[in-house]
Specification:
Blueprint: E1 6-10, E2 12-14, E3 26-28, H1 29-40, E4 60-66, H2 71-80, E5 86-89, H3 102-110, E6 114-117, H4 131-149, E7 155-157, H5 165-173, E8 178-180, E9 188-191, E10 194-197, E11 200-201, H6 208-214, H7 221-240, H8 242-252
Parallel strand pairs: 1-4, 1-11, 2-3, 4-5, 5-6, 7-8, 8-10
Antiparallel strand pairs: 9-10
């Protein structure tokens, strides 16, 4: 155990007129600004990057999965607050409708945001892949992104929430040293040469009081509730397998 970091997981943000009520993981711009303004009002938090030296204070790490088209706007909003974020990209979707292109990814990196892998293809169940497939998902995605931004890639997030030690070890073998899961916890753990972070999920259902809790307030109720829900959802995943992930991909607008 390496202490704590309060990591918050988002996906995409879209103009208010383009968001659909049923797509819970894509926030409207007005909603996302409220989230940032709420976080900025908290005197006890320190927003940082996973690659920085945090000192003795547990940081708040703000992350975004999939590499959605709203990422450049998100980056500007974070900068308005004096912050930088983590953007995890599905490399097979670079340049696809609804996702960032190479120049947008490069620009985010140049402005100080962390660019990381979210695998090549966002597989339905990454923990069930063969060793060779895992090597492809992590290794090739890292190489592609390194070519895009001109820097080594050392961060990643696990697609679909299907983390296992084997998935983590394959990521470390590909050169990833900071790996984010979807497990709702603030605990930071060591895995071989790297570090594994949990994350709390923020979406369109998230109340501002929940967000404050995710950022590390003493009010732990929302964190405990998300942990309980995660445990129940993990059982559903194990029972329904690919059917669960197909539904999730529909909600996230993934092909």
């Amino acid at each position: 155990m390496l202490g704590q970091a309060h990591s918050i997981m988002y996906h995409d943000v879209a103009p208010d007129c383009q968001t659909k009520p049923g797509v819970i993981y894509t926030l409207a711009q007005t909603e996302f600004r409220r989230h940032l303004d709420t976080l900025k009002s908290l005197p006890f938090i320190s927003v940082a990057l996973c690659t920085a030296d945090w000192g003795n204070k547990a940081p708040v790490l703000i992350t975004f999965d999939d590499g959605g088209a709203g990422s450049p706007w998100i980056g500007e909003e974070l900068e308005r607050c004096g912050w930088r974020g983590h953007f995890f990209v599905v490399t097979d979707l670079i340049g696809a409708p609804g996702f960032m292109g190479r120049s947008e990814i490069r620009t985010l990196a140049e402005r100080g945001h962390v660019i990381g892998s979210h695998s090549c293809s966002h597989p339905l169940r990454i923990s069930a892949l063969s060793d060779a497939a895992l090597e492809h998902e992590w290794g090739d995605s890292v190489r592609i992104l390194a070519d895009v931004i001109g820097q080594p890639i050392s961060t990643a997030s696990v697609p679909g929430g299907f983390y296992s030690r084997r998935v983590g070890e394959a990521a470390m073998k590909a050169g990833i040293t900071q790996l984010f899961t979807s497990t709702p916890t603030s605990a930071v753990k060591r895995l071989g040469p790297g570090t594994v972070f949990g994350r709390y999920t923020a979406d369109r259902r998230t109340k501002m009081s929940d967000l404050v809790s995710f950022a590390g307030s003493r009010h732990s109720g929302p964190r405990r509730r998300q942990q309980l829900f995660w445990n129940i959802k993990s059982i559903a995943k194990s029972v329904s397998g690919e059917r669960y992930e197909r539904l999730r991909r529909v909600l996230l607008r993934l092909p």
